[in-house]
Amino acid sequence: MSTYQSFKSLSRAMYLGFQRDRTALFFTVLFPLMFLVIFGGIFSDQTTSKVEVLTIGKVPVLDQAVAQGGAELGKVMKVTKASARADALRKVEKGDAHGAVEQRGGELVVHYSAADQVKSGTVRALMDSIVQSANQAAIGRPPAYTLSTERVEDDSLKAIQFFTPALLGWALASAAVFGASQTLVTWRTKGILRRLQLSPAPIPTVFAARVAVSVAVALVQFALFVLVAQLPMFGLQLEGSWWMAIPLLIAGVLAFLSIGMIIGAWARSQETANAVTQLIVLPMAFLGGSFFPLEETPGWMQTLSYIFPLRYLNEGMLNVMSRGLGPTSALAEIGILAGVAVAGALIALRLFRWEAA
């Protein structure tokens, strides 16, 4: 039997096994979709208490408002002077700030990102209130100031723009880690690995088939998430470089498969593998930014998130699917995920054993 035929047969067998396992199907496909629907509905109207605003150049209207009501404004808004206009707009686009304000004569211009409608709406409402207060102070004279708004993105976005890539990242990580760890432990405890070692099929072909099935399942997950999120009740709008989510997805699957392989190579039973996988996947989902934006978390949590590969998968997909950034914005994340995949594979090889001890 040729290598290709072995690969084809093994891939088909693995896929059919996955398809028949209804529990795996539920937790891989339907369970994450449930979170997408729940979070997409709940957090679309979520309120916020404080926003971060950057000022571009001199903004006398805002400076005057801060001078007169600094204590009250400080409870809901943090104002920071930007070093440059382009840098301010970039930070708003990436979600590092919730708005940027500049003054052009009597016009106050608010730059905002529609990726977070709650905070951008808060910024616009605050600026509108400041402009109205400034005009009301000039009693008996025509309004001196006007307010205009400009989105940093080309298209209008909704809260679903965050939850779709973020929850998809969690779904991909869960499926890959659980799939790899459980498969390896099951094959070892049932003697399948030993039989595969003695079979004509080359061992690299066996693992290539496992990778191919995982990537195929991930592509199905991606398609389902996008189709559901694009329903009229949610209204997902994909940006121009959304296709870069596919190489990100592949790099992410490889990274999380390698983590699952480490667990599967080390664990001696399915119970142990399952427990360790839960201990890794769930904290990684929370600290990797799958359930809520990382900028909403304390500083120590944001720092800690950098050790989790899920952060880079989520960040990369947010950039290309929701924030409208170009294809190159995902290259760093792809490189990091590929590095995790290589390192994880090397560790798994060191821990790998054919038979249960």
Please give a quick description of this structure.
By secondary structure, the chain is of the alpha/beta class. It has helices spanning 3-20, 22-42, 60-76, 85-94, 117-137, 160-189, 192-198, 203-229, 245-266, 270-287, 299-304, 309-321, 331-351, and strands at residues 51-56, 77-81, 99-104, 107-112, 146-151. It starts with a helix and ends in a 6-residue tail after the last helix.
- In the sheet with the most strands, the strands line up as 2-1-3-4-5
Decide which structural class fits the backbone. alpha/beta
Global mean pLDDT:
80
Largest sheet: 5 strands, mixed
Low-confidence parts: none
Alpha plus pi helix count:
13
Rg of Cα set: 25 Å
Euclidean distance between termini CA atoms: 32 Å
H/E series = HHEHEHEEHEHHHHHHHH
Q: Give the percentage of residues in beta strands.
A: 5-15%
- Please estimate the helix content: 55-70%
Overall outline: elongated
Quantity of strands, as a count: 5
